[in-house]
Design a protein that fits this description.
This protein has a domain of about 70 residues. The chain contains 4 helices and no strands. α3 packs antiparallel against α4.
């Protein structure tokens, strides 16, 4: 028994109805949501790897800002944290070049 479409219900590939459905699925709002989900997953993964590298051997202080930078493309809270991390890093680099004063009671 072969099922054949009833007359008038056949659709060819050239018909615009499938194109309308496809364009309704891939509208701008859906693309923004998909992009945000992908950025969130990748950024959170890199950030969690960086946090794990705090106790494991590895460059945690490089990976954590990278994860925050990825998340900062979509979230304002990540931008704020990234600014704080940059400020802390610049303070560390700036203070590293200076000689620390020796406290009075530790001199021999």
């Amino acid at each position: 028994m072969i099922m054949r479409p009833q007359p008038g219900t056949e659709r060819s590939i050239g018909s615009p109805s499938w194109m309308k459905r496809l364009s309704s699925i891939w509208n701008v709002e859906n693309i923004k949501v998909v992009r945000r989900v992908i950025v969130s997953v990748i950024g959170a993964t890199v950030l969690l790897i960086g946090v794990a590298l705090l106790v494991l051997p590895g460059p945690a202080f490089i990976v954590i800002p990278i994860g925050l930078a990825i998340l900062a493309t979509e979230y304002a809270w990540a931008r704020c944290w990234l600014k704080k991390v940059r400020r802390m890093a610049s303070n560390v680099v700036y203070n590293r070049g200076r000689e620390r004063p020796i406290p009075e009671d530790s001199r021999v």
